[in-house]
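Comment thread on ticket #2218

A.B. wrote:
> Attaching the input chain for the structure job we discussed in standup.
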Amino acid sequence: MIDMRTILIDFDVHKEIERRRRSFKETPNDVLRRNFGLPALMPDETEEIREEPGLAVRGTVIPNGTKLRGTYKGIQYYAEVNEGQIIFNGKKFKSPSAAVMDITHVNTNGWIFWEYYDAVNSEWKILKTLREKAQDPMG
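C.D. wrote:
> Ran it. Output below, let me know if you need it in another format.
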């Protein structure tokens, strides 16, 4: 087994690694090895470390570990992206809108309801801005 380390990266670095992926099977480690000119690892060496980069919805990847919050009828709700899903109240959801329906019980645009915590700028931002940023070719 290869000795693997955990590093913290900001969202812009994560986004760039995702942009450079050649396929969904290519891990962030594979991308970095390729970009640093290092040889690829054999598949059996990386099998145990493969994980989803986050929740992919409508051309946007919300990275695992992203904290979400939203307010409904004066009550603040919190969720987190983990294992490629939004985890809220012990349940797993595949989209921001599906997660918010568990709160409102009506169709609600989750991209507008949820805010995500931007750790780089230490502030909460509407999730829609993350999607708009991902779709902007100038980044």
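A.B. wrote:
> Thanks. Noting for the ticket: The longest helix spans residues 11-20.
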